[in-house]
Write a structure and sequence with these properties.
- The structure holds 2 protein chains of 2 kinds.
- Chain A contains 16 helices and 13 strands.
- By secondary structure, chain A is an alpha/beta fold.
- Chain A has 2 domains: 232 residues, Rossmann fold; 100 residues, Rhodanese-like domain (Oxidized Rhodanese, domain 1, 3-Layer(aba) Sandwich), CATH 3.40.250.10.
- Chain A is elongated and about 80 Å long.
- The model of chain A has no long low-confidence stretch (mean pLDDT 92).
- Chain B has 2 helices and 5 strands, in the order βαβαβββ.
- Chain B has a 5-stranded mixed beta sheet with strand order 2-1-5-3-4.
- Chain B starts with a strand and ends in a 6-residue tail after the last strand.
- Classes of the chains: A alpha/beta, B alpha+beta.
- Chain A: This is Molybdopterin-synthase adenylyltransferase.
- Chain A: Homodimer. Forms a stable heterotetrameric complex of 2 MoeB and 2 MoaD during adenylation of MoaD.
């Protein structure tokens, strides 16, 4: 028998040559080449995943080196995706590597995800986590999820089958980016993302080869201080899923940084249904912007002089903000929310651009 | 008859209350549970976290069974 570099895993019952062939044919996109991404990449490459893409717009800095084990002092200041790929380039001749030295955004997500079978999220902030989740739901791609906080980590596999749960089933309400401190603020021992990243790589290999049972509709918590793990079953939360963009067009109009600040989005239909006594539909566009909206509960508060309207806005119990495409209205909603935290405030998804002409007449 | 539940806290929730687990009287359902939790630990009020009852995601109207284990699961974002 001819030895090859996969001998020790091919001999495993349940993996075999077939499993190895699945790994060779598989393509995996790893988002974030940081504390999680580094161990994920190390083990996916060692296992022989045929094509691996790495997405990261960040540069290596000195404080990364306690956990981002692909990098050393010579990599400081260089792009993480490119340096990660450079690390592997001459290690294994049987893997195709692709570096994307950029952050994943609403305008490049669909393109990045398109040519990969499996997506792994090793990013480090809530806006990106919701963005990647929503993009994977839209693209119908399975997503290996993992994240850490201080001495704890969580791992799950989302969106794997038609009935699989996703991040929004688990966490319907987006936390503000600043609500939960990140590694930079709380610190982390490099081993923890190492463990969680390895669990993620393991789930990826299980998903690809069909070995064992993946964390579908389940989430695993791990605590590195007491070495305990805790598993919870996830079930679909349809109301929460409705908060996610339902198509790529709506996805492109999302601003995940703002959405994570807690401004809820509403469609026009729903806004018109709710409009009535005590509510105010607020146009935050500048006065000369077209087309105008004719509506009985309409109030104009251009963003450029927004603070000047606070007294009048305060009179409404519930406010629905809109602008041309739905971004400025989120900013306006956020500003008012910080001034009047108890008010019911929504931003209308997609703004005037999303208003169909039939609704125009009814409005 | 005594009806106590055990509460397990994770991540930032555990950090804020300074414990990984504690016992309390069964408040009956998640809504009342949260109300009592926030009375005891007002610092949890601004946090977002998910509740699991006996290791299953809990809906607001679910009843908390006798002797249940309720987990407070905040999201993590670090990587």
């Amino acid at each position: 028998m001819i030895m090859d570099r996969f001998e020790r895993q091919v001999m495993l019952p349940g993996l075999g040559k077939e499993g190895q062939e699945k790994l060779r044919k598989a393509s995996v996109l790893v988002i974030g080449a940081g504390g999680l991404g580094c161990p994920i990449l190390l083990y996916l490459a060692a296992a022989g995943v045929g094509r691996i893409g790495v997405v990261d717009g960040d540069e290596v800095s000195l404080s990364n080196l306690n956990r981002q084990v692909l990098f050393g002092e010579k990599d400081l200041g260089k792009n993480k995706a490119e340096q990660a790929v450079a690390f592997f380039q001459h290690k294994y001749s049987d893997i195709n590597w692709f570096a994307f030295p950029e952050f994943i955004r609403v305008d490049n997500a669909s393109q990045l995800l398109k040519s990969y079978d499996l997506i792994i999220d090793g990013s480090d902030n809530f806006p990106t986590r919701y963005l990647v989740n929503d993009a994977c739901v839209l693209a119908k791609k399975p997503l290996i999820f993992g994240a850490v906080y201080q001495h704890e980590g969580q791992v799950s596999v989302f969106n794997s089958f038609r009935n699989s749960c996703n991040y929004r089933d688990l966490y319907p309400n987006m936390p503000a980016a600043t609500e939960i401190p990140n590694c930079a603020q709380t610190g982390v021992i490099g081993v923890l993302p190492g463990i969680i990243g390895n669990l993620m790589a393991l789930e990826a290999i299980k998903w690809i080869t069909g070995l064992g049972k993946i964390l579908d509709n389940r989430i695993l918590f791990f605590n590195s201080l007491n070495s305990q793990s805790y598993e919870v079953e996830i079930s679909p939360q349809y109301q929460s899923r409705a908060q996610a963009p339902q198509d790529w067009e709506a996805f492109q109009q999302m601003n995940y940084e703002l959405a994570c600040e807690g401004i809820e989005l509403l469609d026009w239909d729903e806004a018109f249904q709710r409009a009535g006594h005590g509510t105010m539909l607020v146009d935050v566009r500048e006065l000369d912007e077209q087309p105008p909206l004719v509506c009985s509960v309409l109030f104009k508060a251009p963003l450029s002089e927004f603070e000047g309207y606070f007294d009048q806005l305060e009179e409404a119990e519930a406010l629905f903000f809109f602008c041309q495409s739905g971004i400025r209205s989120q900013k306006a909603a956020l500003r008012l929310k910080s001034e009047f935290p108890d008010k019911t405030i929504f931003s209308i998804r997609g703004g005037i651009d999303a208003l169909k002409s039939s609704q125009f007449r009814n409005g | 008859m005594e009806n106590q539940i055990s509460v397990k806290a994770f991540g930032l929730v555990a950090e804020k209350i300074g414990m990984n687990d504690f016992q309390m009287d069964n408040p009956g359902n998640p809504a009342r549970f949260k109300q009592q939790l926030f009375e005891r630990f007002p610092e949890l009020k601004p946090l977002k976290f998910t509740l699991a009852i006996n290791k299953k995601l809990a809906a607001e109207q679910t009843e908390i069974p006798q002797g249940a284990e309720v987990a407070l699961l905040p999201p993590f974002s670090g990587g």
